[in-house]
Specification:
The structure holds two protein chains of two kinds.
Chain A: H1 2-33, H2 40-44, H3 49-59, H4 65-77, E1 83-84, E2 89-90, H5 91-126, H6 131-144, H7 148-162, H8 173-199, H9 202-209, H10 214-232, H11 234-252, H12 257-266, H13 270-298, H14 300-305
Antiparallel strand pairs in A: 1-2
Helix pairs in contact in A: 1-4, 1-13, 5-6, 5-8, 5-11, 5-13, 6-8, 7-8, 7-11, 8-10, 8-11, 10-13, 11-13, 12-13
Chain B: H1 2-17, H2 19-22, E1 43-46, E2 49-62, E3 67-77, E4 79-82, E5 85-88, H3 108-144, H4 146-160, H5 164-173, H6 181-212, H7 215-222, H8 227-234, H9 239-262, H10 274-282, H11 284-289, H12 295-311, H13 313-321
Antiparallel strand pairs in B: 1-2, 2-3, 4-5
The chains are: A mainly alpha, B mainly alpha.
Amino acid sequence: MIHATAAHVLRRFVAALLVVLSVSTAAFVLARLAPGDETTTDVMEGVDPKAIADTRDRLGLDRPFPVQLAQFTWDLLRLDLGESAKFDRPVAALVAERGANTARLAFVALLLATLIGLPLGVVTGAYSGTWVSRLVSTASIAVLACPPLVAVLVLLYIATTTAWISVAPGDLLVPALALGLPVGAALERLQSQATHDAMASLDLLAAAARGIPSHRLVWVHAARQSLRPVLGVYGIVIGSLFSGSIAVEFATSWPGLGRLMLDAVQYGDVRLVAGCVFAAGVCLAVGNLVADTLRSVVDPRVRDLS
Amino acid sequence: MRRAAAAVLCAILLVATAAPWIASNPPDLPFGDRAFAPPMRVHLHDTDGWHAPFVYRQRLVNRIDRTYVEDHTARVPLRWWTNGRLVSIDPGAGPLLWCGADALGRDLCARLVYGARLSLGVAVLGACGALLLGALLGAVAGSSGGRLDTLITTVADFVLVLPIVYLVIVLRATRPLVISPAEAFWLMTILFAFVAWPDVARGVRSIVATERTRDYAAAVRALGAGRWRVMTHLLPAAYGFLRIEFVLLIPALLAAESTLSFVGFGFGGATPSWGGLLKDGEALTAMYAAPWLLLPAAALFVVVLALQTVAGARAGVAGSVVDTTAPRR
């Protein structure tokens, strides 16, 4: 079993590496196709033409495109992402710093979602019909209909009008809640359905007949059965956290990868754009790998199928 | 619940279609002395007793704080069906602002209603495109098998693990930042169709591949039907899946459009799409002074909620998590 899991993980790793490399190259090409380049803002701000010529020379902008692409690909293969023209820093360091921020945000959001969503889901699934579970279900259906953009604006509004939550720059709570609550609601609904299905299964009936107390039935027996369908969506959830984080980072000024990407695109900083896509690809791949590994540990069918 | 949600959706579509007649003012017309004017309230009753619905004229009392008071000296009755507008008031009494005004004094209600056309249009057409592309490719993959199947599945798998949002932003940036609303509309629609098809294709492929082994498919083949003919017989099995997928893709694409416009890479500045409108309400000071600028968020919420209700409770959960950015395995 260990061997099969390792082979599965290795195969996924190679595939992910290929995806990340090719997609960063594509981003480089596309960003070069965009109007303007690293010196456009300098030209508009009337910087000394001599300095601009120096910058163009340093960045190799006057060389033919195939040469630039070859240089980029060669650097990429050596995992050298180059220099950011806008920030005058190595892209790798910049991207690692911002990527870590986004990863931290996504991780806390996922943690919040899990801690809120799963227990509530067990409650609504096992004790449906009570007023508590009706209330929770209604709330989670409502939260489910909030895209991260809506969630973050609502939370910011609550924060500004009531001062219950701090919105000081660098505060993690609002962005993490905005990103995590909709996911938590989705997890709650899923866990609820899974628990409900598990409670109706025959082995739970058998366990109940053996005289196992009901709280143990719900929190141990049913919970274990519901693990598989719920863990299955974690890979998908990680992806949605990533796409949702752009709106959240933008609205709360969270210094993450999404914001860096927007800046890079705006300034035509091609190396940085490619670096951001590279980092996003790596983060997504790692997230998917972790989720997949979890799944193949819980569910042997995943290993055998692939 | 589903009926009610469907009715809400129909009403919103109707309002969006009939925008020029519903909106009381043009969406781009700034009223200089109405910056951050609050929503007007409809009254039925005053000290003289009951009347037909009327509003009070708004008066700017403090230009710095932008405070407005209702001018209670005269009632301004609502007029129905005049000058081709559903509801209007006497132009001498100033603009009719149901949802208040933005920083430039533009009618937020009009902008919301016109914005629905763009936002919903992109989402619905993008979903249609993704569905067409996904159904076609999925059906080809599922019904033919072999190399073509492997090729299509590999491409779909590839697209599914990409950091899609980042790529969409890069792709959008290949065009100038300020482009015409029509160009932005079609650009986003096509982009969305191209990033959302793999999910559809995978579902259709697995359905069609299962159907291919059934007796009726063998019968069609035995009667001498070609590959396309067989496909047209197999594809109807995926209708249920496609219907659910369509309803669930729209909220996802709606969120994508509003996010892109919100961060400045969708519809340009003055174009009233829902995401673009939210950019005006995003500043904390604006949020505090003019919370009605967050109404587009409420509109998004209502549409997404209604769509998820129509899709059904169970499907709604899957759809909200199933994002075009992530693999499904």
